[in-house]
């Protein structure tokens, strides 16, 4: 699946969890592609991702991890549907 429908969560939110994987991406769209592309760490892709526009950091997580949301400036979070 290389295309996805996503819903942006309101406010500035960042995902936190024990199985959250971090990547450095050039854009939010590249972060989305990192999320939906299956890898060894995420064989089914991810269901939620966060992106920091200032630092270009991308955080992804699959559905097996319980995540919490933290308010953080510059971060945006999306759920894939």
Percent strand equals 35-45%
Tally of helical segments:
1
What is the helix/strand order? EEEHEEEE
Give the neighbour order of strands across the main sheet.
Answer: 1-7-4-5-3
Average pLDDT metric: 87
Low-pLDDT residue spans = none
SSE class: mainly beta
Main sheet specs: 5 strands, antiparallel
Helix content: 10-25%
If you had to describe this structure to a student in words, what would you say it looks like?
- This protein is mainly beta.
- The chain is 11% helix and 38% strand.
- The protein has one helix spanning 28-36, and strands at 6-8, 13-16, 21-24, 48-52, 57-61, 68-71, 75-80.
- It is globular.
- The longest helix is centred in the middle third of the chain and has 9 residues, at 28-36.
- The model has no long low-confidence stretch (mean pLDDT 87).
Compact overview of the structure:
With 81 residues, this protein is mainly beta.
Please describe the structure with a list of short key phrases separated by commas or semicolons.
mainly beta; 7 strands; 11% helix; two-stranded antiparallel ribbon; single chain; globular; five-stranded antiparallel β-sheet; 81 residues
Structural topology:
Elements: E1 6-8, E2 13-16, E3 21-24, H1 28-36, E4 48-52, E5 57-61, E6 68-71, E7 75-80
Antiparallel strand pairs: 1-7, 2-6, 3-5, 4-5, 4-7
Protein name: Apple domain-containing protein
Organism: Patella caerulea
